[in-house]
Amino acid sequence: MNVEILISELNFKGIRSSGPGGQHVNKTASKVVLSFNLENSQALSEGEKARLRNKLATKISSDGTLTLECGETRSQHRNKSIVIERLLALLQQNLKVAKKRKKTKPSKGAIERRLKSKKQHALKKSNRRPPKID
């Protein structure tokens, strides 16, 4: 993933935000909507695109566009930097290859300790019961 090329491929749009700012939010476009076309990107390899298509299937539209938005602050520039950071974190997180899990068995000592503690717990519970009178 080439970050410089990726950032140059991003499309930004400023819209009116509903966040903090009083009357200021009624007349300024401080919310930023980021659009990233995953299919036409030159920053990602075909393998990376396929991995992202699988992992981010619910976030990608039918035309292959990933859309994120941020309206947290009153500053459009700050919102723009926040949404870029979010996109990069999202892509890096979903491009990681998970390690293969190795199956392991508990050791004999661990099994014995577990059974011993279960036995002690059962004994403690049985001692709390009222005695049976025949």
TrEMBL record:
Stored Pfam families: RF-1
Supply the EC number(s). 3.1.1.29
Keywords tagged on the record: Hydrolase
Q: Which molecular function terms from Gene Ontology are attached?
A: peptidyl-tRNA hydrolase activity
Keyword hit for Hydrolase: yes
Location of region: Disordered: 97-134
Where in the numbering of this chain does the Prokaryotic-type class I peptide chain release factors domain appear? Answer: 16-32
**Family that this chain belongs to:** Belongs to the prokaryotic/mitochondrial release factor family.
- Do you know which NCBIfam families this protein is assigned to? PRK09256.1
Annotated PANTHER family: PEPTIDYL-TRNA HYDROLASE ARFB
**What's the protein name?**
Alternative ribosome rescue aminoacyl-tRNA hydrolase ArfB
